[in-house]
Amino acid sequence: MHDFNSWIKVDLAELLRAPFHNPSEVPNVTSFKIFLNRQVKENFPRMKTARALYRKHKEILDHESGEPMKIILWPATKEHKEIPIPQHFHEGYLDNMEILAYDYETATAAIKFKDREQFLRLISAKDLLRFRERDICTLSRHQIICKNDFMEADAKEVTGMVATIINGRVWMGSMGKFDLKLFEKPTD
Asked: Which domain of life is it from (predicted)?
């Protein structure tokens, strides 16, 4: 049960609605399903959950209610003190870049190259910090394509991050060997 402490209430309620399969009829699995069902109905009196954070997109309205769209943000867990930053890309990695698009099905920014069949997917706008100056300038010359109006604000986070990197001059390598220290979470 402690494995679910980092889950928010909405996710646990969704888990309850998922198909339940217990072909080997393990009693603990069935007991947990009954326990989770009771917790959801009673608003989790005996189960510690993470607190959900919400952000309203004022410019995006829910087409059914007309209210601003609410986005649920997951809080950081206390288990990890620092976020590993993947290796940076070499200078000129994006020289053959053809298109920058936002894939709403995977919620990633996808970069298509002229000479490769594979796409480079950026899970977060912060992944742009892995590029060097020349590649950030290449990205700044491309407009992001987004065919889903509801996801346009998320897509614009990518182009906004490019502008932030350029304005702050914080591309990979701009601070020498101390680049990674900038992104470490402070210890308590």
From this structure: Eukaryota
